[in-house]
Task: structure prediction
Amino acid sequence: MADLAKLYSYRPMEEVTLLLAQVLTFSRNKEKVSSLDIQNQFKISTPEAEIIFDWLADGGEVEPKISKHWIRCGRRYVLNNPLPDLVDMGRKLGVGERRTFLIMLALEKRKIIHIKENFEFERRKPMATFNDLVKQMRWVAKKYRGRCELTLLARILYLDPITAFRLAQYGQENLGLLWRSRPPELR
Result:
């Protein structure tokens, strides 16, 4: 299910409940609804509109769509994690269950994963090696002005915290990349 807890952190509970009821009515009266329609109609932020759109998609009220960006993110998640699974992929990508399932189907179509009978999946392509992760980290560092802190790597490369920490430490010690906002106990 979509992460409504985030939505409740943005707004008070009564306001969120009212907003969800209004969006539900809006989606039933309009034939096709996108997150941009929700954002424009109710004057809310993009993250809030995405959460509400995922909530509607999980409830079967709207037809979810995925872009090539989400497929690339799903591919990166599958290849960078030792034990990928559907629930964790949805949590790390920050999308609802139905969009996560569509990403999983798109990855199977591209022969990156194979879906088993119980909706678990296994990789068809080999997992990223350490050199592949270093190459991806250099891309992130180039994009973010030489930064390589573990929260950034975990968010962009969809890594588990231990791998992100090891990779960030390698980047700082061997490649001269920066760790901004590094915790004092690790300095």
